[in-house]
Amino acid sequence: MRRTETEAAMSNGHDTYPPSTFIGLRTKFVLFISLVIIAVCSGLSWYFIRQQSDAMTRALVSSGSILVKNLSHNSRYGLVAKDLVLLDQLIAGVMEVDESVYIIFIGPDGKRLAAKSKRNVYPSHTIAESLFRSDSQDVTITPFTAIGSGGGEALYDFAVAVRRGNERQAPFSLLTFESEESQDDSATAEQSSERIYGVVQIGVTGAKMHEALNRMIGNVILITIAVILSGIFAAVVLTRRITTPLRNLVDVARRVAGGDLTASVGPMTRDEVGQLTTVFSQMTVSLRERDSAVKQAYQELEQLNRTLEQRVHQRTSELQTANEKLKELDHLKSQFVSIVSHELRTPMTSIKGYVENLLDGLAGALTHKQTYSLDRVKHNVERLTRMINELLDLSKIEAGRLELTLAPVALSEIAEEVVESYQAAASQRSIVLRAVDHQPLPMVMGDADKLSRVLINLVHNAIKFTPQGGEIQVEGRMHDGGHVEVSVTDSGNGIPAHDLKRIFDKFYWSESAPVEARGAGLGLAIAKNLVELHGGTISVESTLGQGSRFSFTVPIAHS
Questions:
Q1: Predicted pLDDT at 502
Q2: How confident is the model at residue 242 (pLDDT cuts 50, 70, 90)?
Q3: 392, 341 Cβ separation under 8 angstroms
Q4: Cα angle: 343, vertex 348, 349; to 5 degrees
Q5: Is-contact 194 106, C-beta < 8 A?
Q6: Cβ-Cβ contacts under 8 Å for 165 (sequence gap 6 or more)
């Protein structure tokens, strides 16, 4: 019968979490690490390509500027004297440069003196006209696209005006063709008048630069893909090493849940997962011993029925022994739950501390997304810690080790403290939480900490199941003369009538409760036990769609 209940519970668990929506921890780790690797590698590759492209463009502009400045310096005499032979020689020399596409010499009257193009491509005449109208002595760089039979080609036009007054030493003296006589003539011309000798234009192609850039981009993409694939492979190997022990543990847990108590698993790592595996193995051993003891007790009962009249006294003593063993096993179970819960509390406290340190910025500034993720981690750690504390309290109650420190207590003050402590949680969901005192209440005889725990459980449940914009009211009043009643009323969705009888059972959730609002199912059970230890009662009234009212009574303290 116990196995049937376990299988039913497992079936309900599968209904709650359908396999189609299950995403493994390994898959999540691999996806997250892969996305990080892809984002980082792509960003670095883009940055490197952008830097290289800018550097190539600057190099092309620099070389073109130097080339046109030297040509303008060396062509000064040819422009002044309109020496076409000298200009043609200069054109022939510059056209030997692979990047040069065309060269144009324009005289002071705006007409071309000499020009040559490798592809019959020339720039717009407006570039030279603008230089005649301008006083600038800098190089004018004009990028444009030349349309030809092979498609568009990116060209850079470098143009500079040869003016009187800028006869300075050429950037590279080896490229200077002027004689001392031409320099003397220029000096004489400078003294005589101010005018433009002409304009020099050189067209430089960016095709080779683009080819080199494209080759580099291809290499960078290949390297980036290789790095990404290597990173993903490493992530897969790492996550497999982490999740394999967990998968083995899940498989054994399913076999145990299906009734196979002989299933066991050994620790594969020396970490928290290994400790969990060891504790789980100890639990299966305890369950196997208990199951064996129960089977043996049933066999003995069957044999006792056959010879009941002859062995009634002997079997009675044996049944008492078996019952003591069962109690001992049940005690071991409670002790096991208590030990496991206590051992889990320490790492949970450590995890919470580290998360709070990160949120406080002790490890550096966080992004909005990181802050949001750490807030979710903190919320779930607090939720798990609350479940562990509930398990510890329940184990103490079942073991009879929970002692009450009775003294006169003011329930109204406890109610105000609990309401004040939960104001922040209620405000986050736009819930109005308030305490109502219609009349002064007498002192009650009870344990202040335990009664505060009862109220905390009830208020916490009310906040979880009350929608945004709702209202929760904590109220105290006299009840039947000898008791004080405290009630917690909410405007939530209410509880179905068929769930009201089991609402205070251990590990029970109403089917109408949202999955995200479910806890360990122990809060109301603990509250019921604590109230009954005080000699009081606890009850619930609820109307589906209108809300619920939980109330408990505590005896008045007599002077």
A1: 82
A2: confident
A3: yes
A4: 100
A5: no
A6: 190, 194
